[in-house]
Amino acid sequence: MIFTTVPLTIINLFIFTTLFTFFWIVKQMHASKTMVSLIAIWLFLQAMLGQTGFYEVNDTIPPRFVLMVMPPMLFIVLIFNTQKGKTYIDGLDLKKLTLLHVIRIPVEIVLFALYTVKLVPQLMTFEGANFDIFSGISAIFIYFLVLKKVHFNKNILIVWNVICLILLLIIVAIAILSAPSPFQKLAFDQPNIGVLYFPFNWLPSFIVPVVFFCHLASLRKLLSHKSN
Q: How far apart are CA 138 and CA 198, in angstroms?
C-alpha cells in the first residue's frame, strides 16, 4: 500500500536519512560492536513488522505502536544508568551530537509529503503544530556560530538543547495522540497512519530515540562540565 501511495523519491529520502543516521552512529559516535549489532537487528525487525501490517492492528491495549518506542527508550535509560554507559556518553563529541540534528530537516520534508498523500495529519507538519524543523535548521547555525569557537557559550547551547527537546516531545505527543488506537484524541479526520508502515516506522522506532538521546547526552555533558 505505502509504496503505491508515496512518491519513490520520498521513500528513498527517508531510507537514506535512516541509514545516514545509522552510519553516523557507527563512525562519528564510536558505538561498540554490540550496540551496532543491536541497532542493526532492531532496524531489520522493525522493517519486517512494518511490512507485514503488524502495527495496523489498532484495538489492542497497550497499542502495538508502543513496541516501536519503548525498547529503544529503555535502552537509553540503561545507557544513562550504568557506569559503562555514562563513560560512553562522556566520551562523545558535543559537536557531532549537535550536528546530527540536521537530519530533522529531511524528516520534516518527509512528514509534509506524507500529509499531502493523507497518511499523517497536517498537525504533524510545519504547516500545523510541528516546529521541529527549527531544530534541524538551527543545528547548522549552532554548530558554526557557537561550537566552532574556541570558547563557546555553554549557556546558549543548554538553552538550545532544552528548546529543541521540548519541540521534539510536543511532536511525539501529537503523533501518539493522533495515531489510531483506543487512546486517540486528535486528528480523527486524518489519523497518523504513515508511521505504521515500513520504512516510515523507522521514525518512531529509531530516529526519534536517537535525536532524544543526543539531546540528553549533550545536556549531561554541558551540565556536568564534561563537554568537548
A: 29
CA 169, CA 139: separation in Å to the nearest integer? 17
Domain count for the chain, please give it.
Answer: 1
Closest listed residue to residue 110, CA positions, set 195, 44, 169:
195
Instruction: Give start and end residues of each alpha helix (H) in the chain.
Output: 2-5, 8-28, 33-52, 66-80, 83-90, 94-99, 104-116, 133-141, 154-178, 202, 208-223
- The answer to whether residue 228 sits within a structural domain is no
DSSP string, 163-197: HHHHHHHHHHHHHHHHSSSTT--S-SSS---GGGS
What confidence tens digit (pLDDT) does each residue in 30-43 have? 888 999 999 999 99
| Cβ-contact 57, 178 below 8 angstroms | no
Contact 219, 161 (CB under 8 A): yes
pLDDT in tens, 81-135: 999 999 999 999 999 999 999 999 999 999 999 999 999 999 999 999 899 999 9
Q: What pTM, to 2 d.p., does this model score?
A: 0.93
- The answer to whether 153 and 30 have CB atoms below 8 angstroms apart is no
Q: How far apart are CA 225 and CA 47, in angstroms?
A: 39
pLDDT at 51: 92
Task: Tell me which residue range forms the domain holding 111.
Answer: 2-223
